[in-house]
Design goal:
single chain, alpha/beta, Rossmann fold, 4 domains, five-stranded parallel β-sheet, five-stranded mixed β-sheet, 22 helices, 20 strands
């Protein structure tokens, strides 16, 4: 790319990772249609269907110059194959295509959520644009001042050239980021709206499309088409490729797949790049609840194990992400470093960094999966580093899953003593486990609050599956007193109870954060009001206090910024929308403090220990 007579490399944010692309490409290339002699004949299902009895091709021919029938070639021997009309096959395939429709009510709820998200996204984009434009303006002024210093001979030519080049490169970088913000979230909503609308009429579109479009759709969506008598059998191709295709198929601009199995919905999140689409499809149909929308899982699982098994970890992560979980893997540097070539001090420093990084991931997780594949001739091997990570997770009362049975090693008793849940090589059992747990409905969709409630209740011995049911607090976005914060929490809880009257979860939970004065000699303190209520009506409420906010920050809320999270991002350039992490330099964060507040309430709800 040439800018002002200077060439710059094309550097854009990736939409999917290289491993995701390779996986999709490998699956796509794996589906091949065998070439056949009569490729120019206009038979819709020519070359797509095999005989279920002998495996030969189903060939098609015209009868009475207008009726098309298919039958087995019987090349391997006569077996009394019957003739099936092309119209009959079309009727059966229409039923298959009907699986990729989305009900009208689901479309409406997704689009309603998308519109709300678009407004919030545009506001965020505008604030980010303003910040980038400010940086560009600062750099342009610096270039001007630097040029004046050069003319006044205050700086030499080499320094002027070097610094001006640095500033110009920074400006080009910021302008590239500005250009990336041009596409509004609203345009993505229009795309999703069109896709959803097309998906609703997919069976009719399939019926009326010409034979080339039908063949293209069937080639991409289905595999292993077999004719058994008059009945057509089929398999849906790997869902990743199905979703990549339906975004491009020429029946309009695409479609969506509907199924009553959660794992089939989730790959869209795994592949689609635009945030509004990801958000829309973070919802899933639950057939046990009359087809209503249920917010998908917000649970995070960290995978631990030997780096020799990194490929197996990636496969497990793909499955779990498909099931709706956020997954964290060990840093890939761990498996690439030759520690024997490093000095002792450098080796120790690097190891400490990698250990701390992975423990931090565990510290933010709801569960840990130990990928204990065979190693060193030991079945289900668990190394020393992995044992340490198991103990760290066990101390936090979060679930430990063991991919294979515990190994026969000197510390087998210690492994079993931490009561891991054995998966027998099937990571999908993790999802089955969580689905059996009691449900807690939470009156927020904030990932911080959902994680805090999940981990806080687990520490108190209450293991649940966390389901977001966002409600309104009906107070200011940043409550400024204990009274207002308390009212906001109660309002959320009461609205949650009313909205969930027919769902009958085991627990209801609400968290409202605010800041308030506790003493005339101090500034405002951060804090939360936590409410947890059991289905039987037992309710416990807790009020927590966090750190004291600096006067310079507290005075700008809400006069200049709606809340402290936005303030630290806009005013101080914090990467995280977390004032506590910013003030404490990462030593603690809002989630940890909120988790402690949830724990203090949860132990009153269920004071007796649970397994």
């Amino acid at each position: 790319m040439r800018v002002q007579d200077r060439l710059y490399d094309h550097r854009y944010e990736t939409l999917i990772t290289k491993s995701e692309f390779d996986m999709a490409d490998a699956i796509r290339n794996g589906y091949k249609i065998k070439p056949h002699r009569w490729g120019d004949l206009p038979f819709t299902y020519r070359g797509l269907i095999n005989c279920g009895e002998c495996g030969c091709r189903i060939t098609f021919e015209t009868k009475k110059k207008k009726y098309i029938y298919g039958h087995c070639t019987q090349y391997k021997g006569k077996h009394g194959a019957s003739y099936v009309s092309e119209d009959e096959l079309t009727i059966q395939l229409q039923k298959v295509i009907s699986l990729i429709t989305v009900p009208k009510e689901i479309c409406e709820q997704i689009l309603e959520r998308l519109n709300k998200d678009a407004i919030e996204k545009d506001q965020t984009i505008q604030s980010q644009r303003d910040a980038l434009e400010l940086e560009v303006s600062k750099l342009e002024k610096r270039i001007g001042r630097l040029y004046e210093d050069y003319l006044d001979e205050k700086v030499d030519e080499s320094l002027y050239t070097r610094k001006s080049e640095e500033y110009k490169q920074s400006i080009a970088k910021f302008k590239t980021q500005l250009n990336a913000f041009e596409l509004s979230a609203a345009s993505h909503i229009e795309t999703v709206s069109h896709l959803l609308e097309v998906s609703r009429s997919a069976p009719e579109l399939f019926k009326s499309a010409d034979y080339t479009v039908k063949r293209k759709l069937l080639n991409k969506v289905l595999s292993n088409l077999q004719l058994n008598g008059n009945q057509l059998g089929w398999e849906i191709k790997n869902h990743t490729i199905l979703w990549l295709f339906v975004m491009k198929i020429q029946l309009g601009r695409g479609s969506r797949t509907r199924t009553y199995d959660t794992w089939f919905w989730r790959p869209v999140l795994y592949q689609l790049s635009y945030a509004p689409m990801r958000y829309a499809l973070n919802y899933t149909i639950n057939p046990q609840r009359s087809g209503q929308i249920m917010y998908d899982k917000h649970m995070k699982i960290t995978i631990c194990g030997s780096m020799h098994h990194l490929d197996s970890m990636k496969v497990a992560a793909d499955i779990l992400e498909t099931l709706g979980y956020e997954v964290k893997l060990p840093d890939s540097r761990e498996g690439k470093v030759d520690y024997n070539t490093l000095p002792d001090s450098e080796r120790a420093t690097l190891k400490e960094s990698l250990i701390q990084e992975h423990l931090n991931e565990i510290n933010e997780s709801d569960a840990v999966l130990i990928l204990n594949e065979d190693k060193k001739s030991v079945a289900g091997y668990v190394g020393g580093n992995t044992l340490m990570e198991m103990a760290f997770a066990y101390a936090q009362k979060i679930e430990l899953f063991l991919f294979k049975p515990a190994p026969d090693m000197s510390y087998t008793d210690e492994i079993l003593g931490m009561k891991p849940i054995i998966l027998d090589g099937d990571v999908r059992k993790i999802d089955e486990y969580f689905k059996r747990l009691p449900r807690v409905f939470v009156s927020s969709e904030s990932p911080i609050k959902l994680t805090a409630i999940s981990r806080g209740m687990r520490r108190a011995g209450i293991r649940t599956q966390v389901i977001a049911r966002p409600t309104q607090s009906n107070v200011n976005e940043q409550p400024m007193s204990i009274e207002e914060t308390y009212t906001g929490a109660v309002n959320r809880q009461e609205a949650l109870m009313r909205a969930s009257v027919n769902n009958n979860p085991e627990y209801f939970a609400s968290v409202e954060s605010g800041q308030y004065f506790l003493h005339p000699n101090h500034n405002t303190f951060g804090g939360s009001v936590v409410i947890i209520e059991k289905r039987d009506g037992k309710r416990e409420i807790g009020i927590s206090t966090a750190i004291e906010y600096p006067r310079a920050m507290a005075d700008m809320v809400p006069s200049k910024y709606p809340d402290l999270g936005i303030l630290v991002q806009e005013e101080y350039g914090s990467k995280l929308k977390d004032p506590i992490s910013f003030i404490t330099n990462g030593k603690t964060n809002r989630r940890k403090i909120m988790e402690e507040a949830v724990f203090n309430v949860a132990i009153q709800i269920s004071p007796e220990p649970q397994d």
